[in-house]
Specification:
heterodimer, A: six-stranded mixed beta sheet, 11 strands, about 60% strand, B: mainly beta, seven-stranded mixed beta sheet, four-stranded antiparallel beta sheet
């Protein structure tokens, strides 16, 4: 089945630095979703992208969907300690959503 | 998120025992799921159900069983056949099964084999 590959697996930043995680698929995606899981918590839905080239913002978070709808990125500007956690992308596969392995973000105060 | 209740949050199992993890939702969602998450790993689908009295195997169903007798309930049994059951188990629900539906997760259950 379709797989979504996420990179990097880990990212450690100094507070105030920017952070980006990437999600790639070998096939065209009808949509892509992003979730955040805080340490010890459960994944929480952040956003869904549907349109080619779409860009959505949530405060310091910027989500992009590639023109070919095969890749997506999540960019966090000026990270804060509250941003720590694992960020997952999820793409459709046979009428299910398949999750990437996630990018674990740690932020040093 | 607040509409999906998993219990217990922590569970210890002796080898050879079956254990059942409870999942209840009050979101009135049709689809329910069970995922397994190992430390530092992504989410792997165990079972899913689109409708009452129907469920399908996911990617790693061996050693697990489920039932869906009521719309709001989707318990997962980890059987003794599951060789490496220690993991974090997440129950989830969505309005329907299919790409584009937001997936809502419960708070998870930690299972440890002792």
């Amino acid at each position: 089945g379709q797989q979504v590959m996420q990179i990097p697996q880990y990212q450690h930043v100094q507070e105030g630095e920017d952070f980006t995680t990437y999600c790639n698929s070998s096939t065209t995606l009808s949509n892509i979703q992003w979730y955040k899981q805080r340490p010890g918590g459960h994944p929480v839905f952040l956003i869904q992208l549907v349109k080619s080239g779409e860009v959505k913002k949530q405060k310091r978070l910027t989500f992009q969907f590639g023109e070919a709808k095969k890749n997506s990125s999540l960019h966090i500007t000026a990270t804060q300690t509250t941003d720590v956690g694992t960020y997952f992308c999820a793409g459709p596969d046979n009428n299910d959503m398949r999750f990437g392995a996630g990018t674990r973000l740690t932020v040093k105060p | 998120d607040g509409g999906i209740t998993q219990s217990p949050k922590y569970l210890f199992r002796k080898e050879g025992q079956n254990v059942t993890l409870s999942c209840e939702q009050n979101l009135n969602h049709d689809a329910m799921y069970w995922y397994r998450q190992d430390p530092g790993q992504g989410l792997r689908l165990i079972y899913y159900s689109q409708i009452v009295n129907d469920f399908q195997k996911g990617d790693i169903a061996e050693g697990y069983s489920v039932s869906r007798e009521k719309k709001e309930s989707f318990p997962l049994t980890v059987t003794s056949a599951q060789k490496n059951p220690t993991a974090f188990y997440l129950c989830a629900a969505s309005p329907g099964r299919g790409a584009g539906n937001t997936i809502y997760f419960g708070e998870g259950s930690w299972l440890t084999v002792v």
